[in-house]
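quick one before i forget lol
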Amino acid sequence: MYLMSGLLMLKIYQLRHPDVNPHAYTAYIFLSFTVLIEVVGVYLQTIYFWVTFAIVYIVATLYFTSHMYYMGVISLDCGIFARISHFFRTDFFTSPKPLYMDRFVFLVLVVTLNFAAAILGVVFNPTDFPSFLLAVFLINLLAYFAYYVIMKFIHGEYPYPITIFCGFLTMVTWICALYFYFSTVTNWQLPAALSRVKNTECLVLDFYDNHDIWHIISSLALFFGS
């Protein structure tokens, strides 16, 4: 799901800005690094991990939002912080308002949400780090998708009926899928004997349980959404 959420955000960005889209190897290096962090977070639940994760998370958020605001002008190298500082002074101190107001409002919201998630992680130390990380990806995906749709309406690009129909099916299937996702019948954090206590009867054909149905319905939601 981390990979799918990341690729969906990348695909939406590619549709709007094909000239500044990141290279495939850069995208997959970032996604593989995300999976590595997820694995480390499962086995290393300490305050030091959460502080390190929060710092990396905040720096990554600042980089990606700067990259989106300036449309690829901010590249990832040794001079990144000097360029960000220069553009920030030029844009916000010499101009009465941001150059790209719609983009600015959206990215302020995104930065606020991600900073809040990083702080909440440090303060509360959620024990289920994979779900926490997945929630971060899904929130960012939904926020960017909403921005994409709103900008289409602002610029007079109205959806076709088939698009509205697929969007409705996507929403319905995602709601159903998330219901089964949060209706857990196991707990990987408990010993096997205690986890079995949460088990219930299979719901479909005496074979598929809640988690299987989550995978089936979420795959349909991804299909309709793509």
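fyi The radius of gyration is 20 Å.
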